[in-house]
Design a protein that fits this description.
It contains two helices and five strands, in the order H-E-E-H-E-E-E. By secondary structure, it is an alpha+beta fold.
């Protein structure tokens, strides 16, 4: 019986993270309780990158890539905050 409870707790702790990657650097852009919500966010972020691609390239700003991965809440950095849509703020990838 304790195995069932432990499995349920482990499953409850798992969230879905939208990861932003630029070169070798990856950051958690946002987290969601369902994979569907994370996939919607990834699609929105990719659309924003496509919309502003020419502008970002003219600034010599790399284009972030997005993926969705399972992540436990305990694995989030303590100072984590959601990333802006394009994955950078003030010209720097965060």
């Amino acid at each position: 019986m304790s195995e069932v409870i432990a499995f349920a707790r482990a499953r409850d702790d798992t969230q879905w993270a939208v990861m932003a990657s630029l070169g070798r650097t990856s950051r958690v852009a946002d987290i969601y309780s369902t994979r569907t919500a994370a996939l919607r966010d990834r699609a929105w972020r990719e659309a924003q990158v496509r919309t502003y691609a020419h502008f970002l390239e003219s600034l010599r700003q790399g284009l972030p890539r997005y993926s969705v991965v399972p992540m436990r809440r305990a694995d989030l950095p303590r100072s984590w905050k959601p990333l802006p849509a394009l994955g950078f703020l003030r010209g720097q990838f965060i």
